[in-house]
Each structure stands twice: as structure tokens, then as C-alpha cells.
Amino acid sequence: MQLLDGKKAGQAIRDEIRLQVAQRLAEGKKQPHLAAILIGHNGASATYVGAKVKACEEAGIHSTLLHYESDLPEHELLEKIESLNNDTEVDGILVQLPLPKQIRETAVIHAIDPKKDVDGFHPVNQGLLMQGQPGFIPATPYGIILLLKQYGVETAGKEAVVIGRSNIVGRPMSVLLSQPGETGNCTVTLCHSKTKNLAEHIRRADIVVAALGQPEFVKADMIKPGSIVIDVGITRVENPSKKSGFELKGDVDFSSVAPLCSWITPVPGGVGPMTIAALLQNTLQACLQKDL
Ligand code: NAD
Questions:
Q1: What pTM was estimated for this model as a whole?
Q2: What's the pLDDT tens digit per position in 100-120?
Q3: CATH code at 169?
Q4: Cβ < 6 A, ligand 1 pocket
């Protein structure tokens, strides 16, 4: 078994971005700028946004964190997004999900200028992804692709099973793995909560991407020996022995599954850091596109 170390691979990408940003600044060009919006006081969301902002700083990307109370009316958020869309200083905009009840996720996603949509959630970018055209790819699936590339993992002709069909992880992941090209060319099965005989599908897979949000769901008896396992899940599970009172669990029962795999991502330290690296890559890309 070999580890797909997202911390290491993500750091390598972030180092490369830092060099590119430094080069831009030395040439007198604009510093990339990410505006991140956080609403409310969800501990996990605050941690994710904090990590993204910190990673920007380390890479030389300017970041602005806009934090609002959880009762923020939808129209105020949409106005804020509109002003960020019109702000030529801002290259990328992200709104941390989930949103409070009074705000429609779709309205927010649709409001972001596709050219600044560094999370890749806007229908324009999702349409471009479907057609294999350049656009912003959602950061988590993009991070997984970068991780597979970084480790030279062969995917062509393999049977891939993606568990979870969300617009931000599972579905775009299934599209990327089925596309022609490096880290694609798989035969993909997209499984979800209504899939029958899920374990049988997983057992056939050379590549398993688990993105269902059910801690330790994928067990050793579902895994074909030698398979590649990508664990996207992050769930906070109560653990009074930890200082924080919780621990992070993936969707894969790592201790029993890992010995069977050829490659596997750990949780934490796998897909999470790659998501951040991919977000920075998209932000740099958004800035570079303005040079053209
Ligand atoms: P989601 O809740 O939007 O989607 C979950 C999907 O899993 C749904 O399509 C559902 O049909 C499917 N599903 C649920 N239970 C199932 C079951 N028992 N069998 C088969 N399918 C089932 O979640 P999401 O936003 O796609 O995120 C999935 C997981 O990935 C969560 O744990 C989330 O925290 C994590 N996540 C991690 C990162 C990262 O950076 N590592 C980024 C995004 C999401």
C-alpha cells in the first residue's frame, strides 16, 4: 500500500504557485486576490475558510475574508457578490457552504461571475466541464485529479466507482474520470443513496472515490485487492478524549481497507489539503486570465 499524501502534494503545488506569484509581482503585475465570504458561526465552515485564507497568505495571494451574521438577508449577500463581481481588484470569489436557511444556495452560486467562480460551482463552469472545455473545475474533484497526476497514478481503462452525486464533488468527479486524457479514460459508475447492491459495485472497482459523508462506510470486504481508494469524506465524530471534543473521520474504514489497496488517501491529510491547493490554482488562473 502506498499513501497518496495530499499534504505533501498540496504543498508542492502551493510552493509552485508562490513562485509564480512572486514572479508576477517582480514584473510589476497585479497580485491575485481571493474574496471569501463566511456566514454564521459553523465551526467546520470557519475552520475551512480560515485554512483557505491562511494558504492564500502563504502563497502570496491577497485574501479578504468577509464574515456576516447568520441572519444576513439573501438580498444583502447578493448585493455584496455583485459589488465583488464589479471590483476589478478581486479575481476570485468563494462563498463557504452550507448557507443559512433564508439564503438559497442556487441564487448565490448563480450570482457569482463565472470568470471569478474559483469554486467552479456556477452552471457555466459546470457546463464547460461537461464538454471538456477549459473553465473552473470544482476544487475538490480538481484537487483529486492533481493528486493522481502528482503521483503518476494510471487511470486509463480502469473501472471507477464514485459514491455520491453532489454537484460539487461526486458528479464532477465522475465526469473528470470519464474524460479523455491523463487521469481520465475510466469506465465510471456513479453510485448514490438509491443505488442497489452498492457493495457489489464497489467490489468491482479499480478506483473508488468515496464522497457520501458517512464515516467509515467503506469496509475491507467491499474492496477489490490492489484498488485505488480516494476518501473525500470529512465528518466530525464526537470523541471526548480529544481536546476539541471530536475527531475527523473519512468515508473509508482506513485501518482495515488500507492494507488491501495499491494507493489510498488518508483523512486528514489526503483530499482536504488538495482541495485548498486546487482553490489557489483556480485563483491564480482567474488572475492570469485578466492578463490576456
Ligand atoms: P452531499 O451530502 O451533498 O452528497 C452526499 C451524496 O452521497 C449524495 O449524492 C447521496 O446520494 C450520497 N449518499 C449518501 N448516503 C449514501 C449511502 N448510504 N449510499 C450511497 N450513497 C449515499 O455531500 P458532499 O458535499 O458531496 O460531500 C460528501 C463528503 O465529502 C462529506 O463528508 C463532506 O464533508 C466531504 N467533503 C470533503 C471535502 C474535502 O475537501 N475533503 C470537500 C467537500 C466535501
A1: 0.97
A2: 999 999 999 999 999 999 999
A3: 3.40.50.720
A4: 140, 163-166, 168-170, 191-193, 195, 198, 211-214, 232-235, 271-272, 275
